[in-house]
Design goal:
With about 500 residues, this protein is α/β, with parallel strands linked by helices. It has 3 domains: about 5-120; about 135-225, Threonyl-tRNA Synthetase, Chain A, domain 2, CATH 3.30.980.40; about 230-490, Rossmann fold. It has 17 helices and 15 strands. The chain has a 9-stranded mixed sheet with strand order 8-7-15-14-13-9-12-11-10. The protein has a 4-stranded antiparallel sheet with strand order 3-4-6-5, with no helix packed on it. α1 (about 10-20) crosses α5, α6 packs across α8 and α10 packs parallel to α17 (about 480-490). The structure holds adenosine-5'-triphosphate and magnesium ion (MG). The site of adenosine-5'-triphosphate has 15 residues, from α10.
């Protein structure tokens, strides 16, 4: 079995790193792997003096270093890495590949010996060693954007001082001080020019009024490679601590500075989610569904999932909160379901009238039981309306009167135009989320203002909740495995699940 050889000095470095750097007894080959990474950050090739170990050293097998013949076996990955580094096809010369591995591992150990002081934190040293270039590249990029924003402002004739810069998950917010208030107008009118100057013309620089005198915030999008995404794990954390007075708390994502945003869907009381294909509607719906389940799985809650595409909601099959234990995929069944809900709504209204209460919350307080809150989620509203126009009848009745009966609708659509979303439908859905859309007119239809046509995509959204002012949210990125693990945790009772 081929081996990697070290020297006595190398062995001392390995022991030191384990004892005084990592504070772990072993295994020793972890230090060899770290050394390998450090060596690969050096652009010049390691010398052949390192080919053999010296007396007093040790031997390590390739099984240990690269997992050769083991599971998992990283030989191919290491071989590819070294082939790129040395500009040689090492897959054809495995002996040479092994020699290079030894040279790199030993050179890395020598680097650690000379650069790391035992009194210093090893992890910090490693971070600087491995990422220092990346950190300085990042700093340079930030400085470049700052310079460009300053020049753009001066090009449009605005005298301004950058007072503060805050980096959010996807955007950098520049707090700009305007000594001359007449420049505000010029700045607002010049936002497109600034975007053009910065080379982000397609995505807009958004302005934000602040509560500080003469200070305005400018949100400048950064390249996607620098974005920080929020995931299902973050959603689970937020959901563990919901606002106490919310009935159906939902977390679509975070604001531009990275703070989680929570709404009460029961207050909404209905929501439209519009956006072009690939803008993140389905991901957003998953965030809403999981939010609801996190806090209401064991309580009186029924979910009606309508998915004409029959693919998006399949992971919720078997969920105990599903209406009639099924996900509705046929338009005819969707029509039936909505009509049944209209009947249910009327029954509830009669029940409430008899008990002298006006809504589900009061009814529950008055001791009326057995009436679950019902949330209807429609994956593609346009598909339903195009195939069966008369579905609009029950839909509008539910939108008009569902709130007091505890019935809430979330309607998603790829086509937020006036045919799909008639005036009557629109006026009865007070809460809206616009993901990226194709045209400014679509943005206007959803949130009553333009802007969503210039978002950065991938769950970037403008949200008008209950007709209040628009806020920008970066959606939480729910993946399929997030859904599976959240559903597992929820059903095991590991997250609230009950309110
Ligand atoms: N919040 C997010 N963060 C990061 N990436 C996202 C986010 N939301 C969506 N994406 C990315 O965009 C892709 C498309 O999202 P999604 O399937 O939700 O789009 P959609 O609007 O439902 O499209 P369609 O109308 O075609 O169904 C996702 O697979 C994911 O890669
Ligand atoms: Mg979708």
């Amino acid at each position: 079995m081929p081996k990697i050889y070290t020297s006595e000095k190398d062995e001392r470095v390995i022991d030191n790193v384990l004892k005084k750097g990592l504070f772990a007894p072993g295994p020793k080959w972890t230090v060899l792997r770290i050394a390998l990474a450090i060596s690969l950050r050096i652009p010049t090739e390691p010398s052949d003096e390192l080919d053999k170990g010296i007396k007093g050293g040790s031997e390590y097998s390739f099984e240990q270093l690269t997992g050769e013949s083991q599971k998992p076996d990283y030989t191919d990955s290491f071989c590819a890495l070294l082939s790129v580094y040395h500009q040689k096809d090492l897959f054809k010369n495995i002996d040479q590949y092994r020699i290079y591995l030894q040279r790199h591992a030993r050179r890395g150990l020598r680097e650690i010996r000379t650069a790391w002081k035992e009194s210093h934190d090893f992890h910090e040293y490693l971070y600087q060693e491995l990422f220092s270039n990346l950190i300085s590249q990042q700093q340079k990029m930030d400085e470049d954007i700052e310079k460009q924003v300053k020049s753009a402002l001066s090009e449009i004739g605005v005298k301004a001082e950058i007072r503060n810069i805050v980096k959010g998950p996807r955007l950098t917010r520049f707090y700009i001080y305007l000594p001359n208030i007449n420049d505000l107008d010029r700045l607002q009118k010049g936002l497109d020019k600034i975007s053009f100057y910065l080379g982000i013309g397609k995505h807009r620089v958004f302005e934000n009024m602040t509560d500080k005198p003469r200070i305005i915030g400018l949100d400048v999008p950064r390249p996607a490679s620098t974005w920080h995404y929020f995931t299902g794990g973050d959603l689970r954390e937020w959901a563990a601590d919901p606002p106490s007075d919310y009935i159906l708390p939902v977390w679509p994502g975070v604001d531009v500075l990275g703070e989680p945003i929570c709404f009460d869907l029961a207050e909404a009381p209905h929501l439209l989610v519009g956006g072009t294909t690939g803008s993140g509607k389905s991901v957003c719906l998953h965030a809403l569904i999981l939010s609801i389940l996190h806090n209401n799985y064991n309580s009186n809650l029924t979910l009606c999932l309508i998915d004409p595409k029959a693919v998006e909601f399949s992971q919720y099959n078997g969920l105990k909160n599903l209406y009639n234990d099924e996900i509705v995929t046929e338009v005819f069944d969707a029509h039936n379901l909505l009509s049944e809900l209209v009947t249910e709504m009327s029954k509830r209204e009669q029940k409430f009238a008899k008990s002298n209460v006006t809504n589900l919350t009061e009814a529950t307080l008055a001791g009326i039981t057995g009436l679950p809150r019902i949330v209807v989620i429609v994956e593609e509203l346009a598909d339903l309306l195009m195939q069966k126009q008369d579905i609009e009848g029950p839909l509008i009745r539910l939108l008009q009167k569902g709130r007091s009966a505890g019935i809430h609708l979330v309607l998603a659509t790829q086509r937020p135009d006036s045919t799909t979303f008639s005036g009557l439908l629109r006026s009865n859905v007070p809460s809206r989320i616009a993901l990226t859309v194709q045209k400014s007119t679509e943005s206007k239809i959803i949130i009553d203002e333009t802007g969503a046509e210039r978002l950065t995509g991938k769950g970037d959204m403008l949200c008008r909740w209950l007709g209040k002012s628009v806020i920008r949210i970066h959606g939480v990125h729910i993946r399929r495995d997030d859904i599976a693990s959240s559903l597992k945790e929820i059903s095991r009772g590991q997250i609230n699940g009950d309110r």
